[in-house]
Amino acid sequence: MTGMRFVPNSRGPVLCGFLILAVITTIPILAVRLPPILDYPNHLARMYILTALPRTPELARYYRVAWSPVPNLALDATVPWLARLVGLETAMRLFLGVTLLGLASGCLALHRVSFKRWSLWPLTAFLVLYNRMLLWGFLNYLAGLALMLWGFTAWVAMERRPTLQRVAVGTVFATAIYLAHFAAFGCYALAVIALSFAPAVGQSFSFVRGLRLTVPAVATLFPAAALFLLAPTSGGSTAIAYGNIFRKFDMPVSLFDNYNRIFDGATFGVLLIAVAVGLARGQIVLDRRMAWPVLAVFAAFAILPSRLFSASGIDHRLPIAIALLFIAAVDWGKIRHLRLVCAALLALFLVRTEVLAAKWVKADGEYDSLRPALELIEPGDSVAVAYSASSVQAGGIPLLHFPTLSIVTRNSFVPTLFADPLQQPVVLNSGFAKRVAEAEPGILWAKVASGSFTGLADYDDLIVLDPPASLDLAKLPGTILFQAPRLILLRLFKPKMDAAR
């Protein structure tokens, strides 16, 4: 059409680009039945219990539901209800897809209200959606982070609204973010407080004025703080542990760390240099006020330990929050060949997605080959699990929590299920904590590897993951029902001593 030209940073191209990238992003999720995410099977099993417990006596022997306002409920509060409409596996994958798109759209929305214009720049968030935190399976945190971005967007957008109205909306978001995940709530608290304090920083710096400006932001956090005091989490472990301080220099690479260390590391290095050069040359511009939330979360990353109370990997979680806040806080500057830059970023996104999708499809095939083992377990059986420390890692084709799928298929008891009353609403019935303690997976694996395993009185079956090549099958105290290179299912000889049942 005459008189019309393509404007890359107008609403139409941005929204069109978002939709195209959103569709591509969901392809790996749609292509598989079980994503190779470390904690995913465990989450799936817990969602099944929440859905099926009232009508399943076998499950009721072992598990019960005890709701409390623990800050880790994003999955538990949504997936069971959604599963009633679309089925459990579809609900889980839908949650995963919505979480990823929630992160990308939240970043886009926050950039839009910050700069008051549309831009293709925030679409770079799609490059970091498949990150190491996702492969570990920190789904509640990522869902909470998506809520955090949207809650922070609302806070910025309502800046000129009446204070009470802004505080009311902010309180709703803050409470929802807290219930989704505590680390995401921490990011939200830092972001709104830092943004509110920012106007007090300048030539006429006034700390008192800064505190006064933060009062509305702090007020939105009170209901969540009250819920935390009511939750068992507040009275739980007070353990604080720092890991190797030099690991903090490596953690940002987790933004791109998927399946090829060389490719992923090179991606991080090239993009980091490109952003640094772009900022130095004015080709990428930073909104100075929005920089304060980024700096606040970055400071938390630098200071926080690896373990805080009942949560592990606290500092590991923050690079993705920092990256998304940073993307929302900057925009294109003067770039002569913007379309060429966009094309290069798109090509990088497509290559990374193809690599990941191929790995997921391969993993799904391996999982399908192991599913028949679960069907050999008797309904209601207690299933112990043995694995080595090397199995506790993301990436590759993880099997660590694959045995928990027997809860879904056979209503079994599996001691590795996430059932911590400080973190989940599914908890063990009285007497079964002892059964968990006697089946520590690492100890069992060592006994199996050394040929000293003699059985377990309270268990019917044993699943050995990634058994050592030197394993003497003749020394195992049971009948081998299923054997594959990475999984052995053993029906234990030892007679049942099931007083707890």
Structural description of this entry:
With 501 residues, this protein is an alpha+beta fold. Helices cover 55% and strands 8% of the residues. The relative contact order is 0.13. It folds into 2 domains: 11-35 and 67-335, no CATH class; 373-492, no CATH class. It has 19 helices and 11 strands. The strands form 4 sheets. The protein has a 4-stranded mixed sheet with strand order 7-9-11-10. Mean pLDDT is 92; it is low at 1-6 and 496-501. It is globular and about 75 Å long. A hairpin with a 2-residue loop joins strand 10 (478-484) and strand 11 (487-492).
Task: Give me some keywords for this one.
disordered C terminus; globular; alpha+beta; 501 residues; disordered N terminus; single chain; three-stranded antiparallel sheet
Topology, element by element:
Layout: H1 11-31, H2 40-52, H3 57-62, E1 63-65, H4 74-86, H5 88-115, H6 132-136, H7 139-157, H8 163-180, H9 182-197, H10 207-219, H11 222-230, E2 240-241, H12 247-250, H13 261-281, E3 284-286, H14 291-303, E4 307-308, E5 311-312, H15 314-329, E6 330-332, H16 338-375, E7 383-386, H17 405-410, E8 426-428, H18 432-437, H19 441-450, E9 461-465, E10 478-484, E11 487-492
Parallel strand pairs: 7-9
Antiparallel strand pairs: 1-8, 2-4, 3-6, 4-5, 9-11, 10-11
Helix pairs in contact: 1-5, 1-16, 2-4, 4-5, 5-7, 5-15, 7-8, 7-9, 8-9, 9-10, 9-14, 14-15
